[in-house]
Structure formats: C-alpha cells, structure tokens
Amino acid sequence: xxxxxxxPTRHDWSQGEVQALLxxxxxxxxxxxxxxxxxxxxxxxVQMSTLLSIKTGACPEDCAYCPQSVRYDTxxxxxxxxxxxxxxxxxxxxxxxGATRFCMGAAYRSPKAxxxxxxARMIGEVRALGLESCATLGMLTPDQAGELxxxxxxxxxxxLDTSAEFYGSIISTRTYEDRLKTLAxxxxxxLKVCCGGIIGMGESAGDxxxxxxxxxxxxxxxxxxxxxxxxxxxxxxxxxxxxxxxxDFVRIVAVARILMPASHVRLSAGREEMSDxxxxxxxxxxxxxxxxxxxxxxxxxxxxxxDRTLFARLGLVPEIPRAGQPAIAAAPARGxxxxxxxx
Length: 343
Ligand code: SAM
Ligand code: DTB
Ligand code: SF4
Hints:
This protein is 39% helix and 13% strand. By secondary structure, the protein is of the alpha/beta class.
C-alpha cells in the first residue's frame, strides 16, 4: 500500500511517528519523500553552497568529531582570522565555479566583538558579489545575531548534531540548551536558519529519530537542513566510528524531506566517500542542496569536475536563488510538474 502524504509543515511530530517513518519499507519511504519534495521544489534542481574556513583550528571546544578542536592531534594547522580581501577572492572563485551561496566557517566557541566586525565586512563583500551569505561562528548572543543581520547576512549555520540525550557523549563544553538558545537568537534577529546534524557518531536509531524530530518541531523549520555523514579524522575520538549503512543514511534524508517539506535538505559532509549511485539515491530521497568545491572546512569534498559530471549524468541543474524568496512557512505549494509526472 502507498503511504499517505503527511501534512506539510507540522511542528508536533511524536517520536513514534518519526521512528515509524524511518522504518517504512525503503521503496514506500522514497515515494513518500518524492511526493513531499515535488510538492515544494523542482526535483531536478540542487542548491550549491561553497564553504571556506575563515578561521581554522585551535578551537577550545571538545566536539568528538571535529579535527579543529585544540584537544586532538589531527595535524590541522591553526590559522588566524583571514584578511577580508582573501575571503573576497575566494568568494569570486566560488561564484565563477557556479556556487550561489558562500558559507564562512570559523572554529570559535563564540566570536569576539572585534572578530565580528571583520566578519561583517566579509559578509558585505560576499553580498556585493551577488552571492547569498552564510556564516557559522559558534554561539551568538541576541545582539551579535542582530549585528550579523545588519551586516547583510542571509543564513546562520548552527547544528544540533544529534539527539539531546546523546549530545553529552559527543561534547562536554556546551549543552544542547546552549545550541537551542543561539538558534532562537538567530531566528529572532530575522536571519534564515541552517541547522542539521551528523550521522555515524555511534548514535542509535532512536537518537537519529530524535534529532529529526527536534529539527521538525522547532517553531519554524530551518530553511536549510544539512545532513552530514561523519568524516572520520585520525586523532579525533571518533576516528574509528562504525560505518553507517548507506540505506539508513538515505532513509534519514527521506525522513528529513517528509518532516520539513519546504526546506532545503543538504547532502552535506561525507560525499567524498559516497558512490555516485548513493548520492543519486539521496537526491531521489529529497536532498536538494550540496557543498560544492574541493574542500569542506579542513577535509575533502568531491572536486568540481566530478560533481559536474554527476549532475550531467542525472540531468540535475544548479538552483538559481530567487531574490526576496518568501519565508518557508509561506512557501507556495507546487503540484507535480507535468513533465516529471509523464516520465
Ligand atoms: N565552531 C562552530 C560550531 O561548531 O558551531 C562552527 C564551525 S563547525 C566546524 C560546523 C559544523 O561542522 C559542526 O556543527 C558539525 O556539524 C560539522 N562538522 C565538524 N566536523 C565534522 C566531521 N568530522 N564530520 C561531519 N561534520 C562535521
Ligand atoms: C555543516 O553542516 N557541515 C559543514 C558546515 N555545516 C559548516 C562543515 C563540515 C565539516 C567537515 C569537517 C571539516 O572539513 O573540517
Ligand atoms: Fe570548535 Fe565547531 Fe569544531 Fe566544535 S565543531 S571543535 S565548536 S570548530
């Protein structure tokens, strides 16, 4: 039997409902995800973001997955906050390669006032190039979120990473509540939210469902939901974490799509280790955003040529952002396009 399409943009999912979606027969789950996807998005377009680490390593936090924590010997060389002009040049290259969003990541627990002033100038340069801007700088106060908004920032990335229960096994230097507070400050400031998690840190199926449920039950769905597969880095406590079953990963993408139908679901870190076929399954399950460019922050990503070839083989095209896109709560629902239905 074909599963019914869940009501869009709900915020009251129970743990049982999310677990039941994750446990659907694979083919039924993919169909439900595709239906949700086609209701809100063109299924053949993918949003393209390029990442740049604007301040690398020596981070005081102890996130067990992260090569940039000062506590682990991972060979990452610490680098101070970049010069504004060097960031502008990287953004020019990202745009020329075809990215439409430029994401600046900094290995901070939280940014200092003088650092934020420099980053505000970087945001201005990125926006002046006609690129969407995104930053991920750690915890923010409401005033700092307002400062970033005033600088022209479009998106703020701040991941919940896993379930509230499992969070303490991965990070001891901040709490889940801290994360939720920053997310609320970011929303309050009028910034768009990019928030997701990491799969493959030893979390249970229940933890995965709980992460998805927490994201979907936020007062407003994040506009962007990055689903990262753990990049195992030698020297971090999770260097030898067990591999994720690829079909389980696809299921998580599909359930994220169903729970947050109007959001962009990003097939995020971990693509370098994925086959083209697995990535295609993720796009079928509703992923419609990627990190594009040879590097994530400190680790590798598929090179531009591999992605261009994959897109050509699948008939995927980069998404062109619409100016003044409406908030996702008000996103227009679109029916299944006739061309797609006829295939
Ligand atoms: N320091 C800030 C923070 O943690 O919020 C911003 C930068 S931090 C590197 C951004 C995100 O990258 C983390 O929240 C985590 O989800 C992701 N990340 C870091 N290391 C990763 C890894 N090895 N594999 C997958 N995702 C990773
Ligand atoms: C997100 O969810 N994934 C990106 C971005 N947001 C900042 C980071 C992935 C980092 C992977 C490890 C690295 O390259 O250092
Ligand atoms: Fe620091 Fe962010 Fe890495 Fe945690 S994830 S160690 S806060 S850079």
